[in-house]
Amino acid sequence: MGRRLRAAAAAAAALLCACDATLTETRTRVKGPVAEVGLIDAGAGRVRFALKGPGWLVAKRRKRAFKLMERYCGGAQYLKVSGERDAEIAETPYTEDDLDVEKFMERGHYRVDSFRVVEFECLKP
Q1: In whole angstroms, how far apart are CA 26 and each of 2, 100, 111?
Q2: Where are the alpha helices (DSSP H) in 1-125?
Q3: Would you call 48 helix, strand, or coil by DSSP?
Q4: What's the whole-model pTM score?
Q5: Burial level of 62, CB count in 10 A (0-12/13-18/19+)?
Q6: What residues contact residue 66 under an 8 Å CB cut-off, 6+ apart?
Q7: Is there a contact between 115 and 87 (Cβ–Cβ < 8 Å)?
Q8: CA distances from 104 to 10, 88, 91 (A)
């Protein structure tokens, strides 16, 4: 019974890890020179999530991505999605400086995955 429970827990952990979205770029808020001006720039950013897997899993990642954007902007009412696109992004644990690029490509160390990239802006409160 213990092995089954451990296997189920490992499977659940693997599914939860795959449900994540990543905030990849942010532009922080910029306050005006005096308090009366308020914010000059309310901030912006970019979030991405993988398109690999069943539809319900991709939908869960998308929901998580929007939660990250809402939290960054301070609420759903301050969030404005400015663009969405699909992108093929190469994921690698190495950098170009680690190995010669031509040899690196021949060995197949790059893994290219499909991601949805969502760009957003924060509205001024």
Answers
A1: 44, 31, 25
A2: 2-17, 55-73, 101-107
A3: strand
A4: 0.66
A5: middle
A6: 79, 118
A7: yes
A8: 33, 18, 13
- Residue 45's CB: how many other CB atoms inside 10 A? 19
Which tokens hold the place of 80? 């404005």
Two tokens at 63?
């929901």
pLDDT tens track for 3-49 = 666 666 555 555 555 568 888 877 777 777 777 677 677 788 899 99
List the structure tokens of 122: 């924060």
Contact 64, 21 (CB under 8 A): yes
Q: Which pair of structure tokens corresponds to residue 6?
A: 């451990």
Read off the amino acid at residue 9: A
The amino acid present at 85, given as its one-letter code, is R
